[in-house]
Amino acid sequence: MNATSTPLLSIRNLSVTFATGRGPFRAVDKVDLDVAAGELVAIVGESGSGKSVAMLAVMGLLPWTATVTADRLSFDGKDLLALTPRERRKIIGRDLSMIFQEPMSSLNPCFTVGFQLREAMKAHLDLDKTARQKRAVELLDLVGIPEPERRLKAFPHQLSGGMSQRVMIAMALACNPKLIIADEPTTALDVTIQAQILDLLLRLQKDSGVGLVLITHDMGVVAETAQRVCVHYAGQQVEMQDTRGLFRDPHHPYTSALLAALPERASGRILPSIPGVVPGLADRPAGCLFSPRCRFATQTCRTIPPPRAGADLGYALCHTPLVDGHPRALKKLEMPA
Amino acid sequence: MFRFFIRRVALTLPTFVALMFVTFVAVRLVPGDPIEARTGERGIAPERLAMLRHELGLDRPVWQQFLDYANGIVHGDFGVSIVTKTPVLSEFATLFPATLELTLCGLAFAIVLGIPAGVIAAVKRGSVFDHTMMTIALTGYSMPIFWWGLLLIMFMSEYLGLTPVSGRMDLINFYFEPVTGFMLVDSLLSDQEGAFSSAVSHLILPAIVLGTVPLAVIARMTRSSMLEVLGEDYVRTARAKGLSPFRVVGLHALRNALIPVVTVIGLQTGTLLGGAVLTETIFAWPGVGKWLIESIARRDYPALQGGIMLITSIVILVNLIVDLTYVAINPRIRHG
Ligand SMILES: Nc1ncnc2c1ncn2[C@@H]1O[C@H](COP(=O)(O)OP(=O)(O)OP(=O)(O)O)[C@@H](O)[C@H]1O
Ligand code: SF4
Ligand SMILES: [Mg+2]
């Protein structure tokens, strides 16, 4: 974390609780995140670890059953939690935009691509009709869609998944955002075009200097592109490190297991599976949530929730963070203020 | 789109044939015949009865009667009323505007209230508004039309004296020739002061009574369709653009939610035309429904057959239009 410049997005202790039929369910538990302007931060974690929910909370897009709390949730110097819905809508879609996991269902089937693309500009930019149309054509061109004029008149069902995701990317870029959150932008696509779409996204990010939070299962992509990595497990953030540090010396046993399970490290493109499953609502252990699957688990781990380590140990949420693969007991003083 | 149109139209042909058969049989299942209905208790001399029956063609074999009737319809001839001796088609044409006006106003009432009610209930699901609306809708749906009509007449007309009890127009104070057959339009065209408000006050109760069941159905359908759509990814995308809730709900969600609602509205048109028969009887509304009921009493076979045939054809036609509209508003089918 860069202490000198104020980060674009700054999150401290973000928690999200859903009211469900079987009582409250905490899907995100005390997550921190800082993203500087132009930075690329990756969030990795197994399915159901609260990655999407955390980012939807930032966007303010969670359903009414969700309760969001945070010590800090600021974007571009503004406290998102203190904004009125109207003020927030001025930021969402303009300075902060999001690309979703399911491109095919994320476009409205009743409206043309052009309509949906121009609509965001109409809401935020001071452009007249012809200027919006011109920019729409440019955007489609930018995301590599051939015959942009014709495509603008198409309905979403006439597009393939990859095409839809290109449109979604164009839509996210429409108002020159400062930060884009891309939630597993390629997971739903054909393997053959996943790389294309990701390359496009990364190229556009590099060219425009926009900040990018990339939620992904792809450790290979993380290794190649991200400056920093957050590892989520069961709603908690178990580790956050510079990418190089994380791959060289993972401090949390979960991260370590993830990397160890990677076939030849970065060549395996899917998040590797490690034995066991993420605990659900009913079977949450009392102490460390990872203890049922952790090979370093002790009696303490099973009964007492672990503290958070300091920056030098990747903020690992562990009683005995690993250093060079070996557990090391935390000194009391290393807990963050 | 064109091929769909052709196929859909072709599909209605067998329905018409079946309809022709069913009306013919159903009409004859009512005990008694036109002559008995006219002579009643008085009785009639056998030779005069035979003559009358011959005159009306009732002495011919039933299958021949059916062929005559079917042949007539194919050539656009719906027969001549036994009682009034006028062609059924022209009688129907005179009365239908009244029924259509009532039906359209009932439908408009149902749509104008039903869709917003359903949308608000869905957006505020679980709220007091939602529960109240849905209870009212359920009550409205299960309320017998006859009882509900009488209740309204008793309260609004008898007790409050706000609206007239029956008819389409205050015929003592106003008279004008029908131009369109729609009282609302004709009264405006007539330039007579007070005529329009008289037309409205006559129309309002029957329209409410007739529109109640469709209102309930439309409100419930809109609500459930809306609830489903509000959870869709593209609604989240719309919100992620920072659009106003009004635009997200009223445009992005509603546009999709309306697709099944339009179908339901179309199906309700059949119910409405059927309901018009009852409503017209309650409010002495001079339309097709009242005429049909009277024709039953007179066993006026041609009028009944032709009338039912015509009104049902209109229902089938409306459903056809609804299907085509459904295709038109749903791009997934249009460009399928
Ligand atoms: N609306 C909701 N109501 C209740 N629980 C929810 C809701 N949305 C998500 N959850 C739960 O929150 C948890 C985190 O979900 P989330 O979608 O953030 O996971 P994820 O890390 O993005 O997983 P994936 O990799 O599959 O996208 C899951 O257990 C999910 O069931
Ligand atoms: S706290 Fe214990 S169980 Fe949890 S990750 Fe650390 S070592 Fe493993
Ligand atoms: Mg997700």
- The quaternary organization reads as heterodimer
Low-pLDDT stretches of chain A are 265-269
- Secondary structure: number of strands of chain A: 13
- Show unreliable segments of chain B: none
Number of helices of chain A: 12
User: Remind me, CATH topology of chain B?
Assistant: MetI-like fold
Bound molecules: adenosine-5'-triphosphate, iron/sulfur cluster, magnesium ion
What is the strand arrangement across the widest sheet of chain A? 7-8-9-3-10-11
Assign an overall shape of chain B. globular
Structural class of chain A: alpha/beta
What helical percentage do the residues of chain A reach? 25-40%
Computed over alpha carbons, the radius of gyration of chain A is 21 Å
Q: What about the largest sheet of chain A?
A: 6 strands, mixed
Task: Please give the radius of gyration of chain B in angstroms.
Answer: 24 Å
CATH superfamily of chain B: MetI-like
Structural class of chain B: mainly alpha
Question: Describe it for me?
Answer:
The complex is a heterodimer of chains A (337) and B (336). Chain A has 12 helices and 13 strands. Chain A has 337 residues and is of the alpha/beta class. Chain A is globular. The model of chain A is unreliable at 265-269 (pLDDT under 50). With 336 residues, chain B is mainly α. Chain B has a single domain, classed as MetI-like fold. Helix content of chain B is 76%, strand content 0%. Chain B has helices at residues 2-29, 34-39, 46-56, 62-74, 88-123, 128-142, 145-159, 183-189, 195-230, 233-240, 245-282, 288-298, 301-329, 331-334. The model of chain B has no long low-confidence stretch (mean pLDDT 86). The interface between A and B is medium-sized, with 32 and 22 residues.
